[in-house]
Amino acid sequence: MKQVVTFGEIMMRLSPPLNYRFAQAATLEVNYGGGDANVAAALAGLGVPAAHVTCFPDNDLGRAAASQFRRFGVDMDHCVYQGQRLGLYFLEVGASLRASKVVYDRADSAFANLNPDSFDWEEILKDAQWLHWTGITPAISASAAQATADAIRAARKLGITVSADVNYRRNLWQYGQTAQSVMPALVAGCDVAVCSENDADDLFGIQAAAGADNKFASMAEQLMARFPQIKQVVSTKRKTQSASHERIKGMLFDGTYSETPYYDITPVVDRIGGGDAFLSGFIYGSLHYATTQEALTFAVVASALKHTIPGDVNLITPAEVEHIMQGNTTGRLVR
């Protein structure tokens, strides 16, 4: 099987233990993650060959981050080492009525200052079947946006499937360009888009038709008309009960609307990476199942399971997902 290749920044995650507040913390637990890299690591764990491409600082922290993803089975051979700074984020995990909090410290990172010419995308993608990126990557800097555009262009030339989680983060766009001016040209090169109704409105000015019975399907149909390369639009819908209790379902439009039932998750252990788990599950399902309904169900179950796992990466097996897909949702001990 050919590789799935992802591109984007990897950051160090620092968290107080358990559900401690920042003000209580005497120690911080270290993890590494990034939206695109989390997809690659989850796929590698599911048995799909995966590679991640990024720019690390040329120091021990950059090499430590790369080493963690290698342990997950991700091919990191195309990463570049230049610059001095690894981006950080600090996570305080909430509980019940208290929401989780994230503080970012990623300005002037090695990834933000990458040189787009450092990546030979046709060489990187020569053994690939799929390229995935998120809207966070072109938000970081002009050079990161250029590298994303270069990767998509090479993937289109090579006939590789391209997916994007458009993931609009308003506060990240600080380098003089807006998401609304940059993202359309990038999304135009995609076959699969993860896009919510809110992101479609914020990024592309697309709103569900007035009076539409299914607002997601109405939005997705317009998105596909605007960007004809897109063949599938997928997303999740959440009913958040508290920081510790979530309900989630998957939605897909490819000319026909599909959805899954809601899955109930309580207690939530860690929300970070739930969207990445959904997309990695959808890629796996698309490569292994005969129907989009099966792929979508695999994706949302994979996301639900991620909420039970600490850290950024979804460390699950296909058998664990399929066990739940068969209706085994009690979490009963498996011997």
TrEMBL record:
Xref: Pfam families: PfkB (PF00294)
Species: Hymenobacter persicinus
InterPro entries associated with the record: Carb_kinase_PfkB-like, PfkB_dom, Ribokinase-like
Domain Carbohydrate kinase PfkB: 1-311
Family recorded in the similarity comment: Belongs to the carbohydrate kinase PfkB family.
Record CDD domains: KdgK
Keywords: Kinase, Transferase
Keyword Chloroplast: no
Organism placement in taxonomy: Bacteria, Pseudomonadati, Bacteroidota, Cytophagia, Cytophagales
Name of the protein: Sugar kinase
GO-annotated molecular function: kinase activity
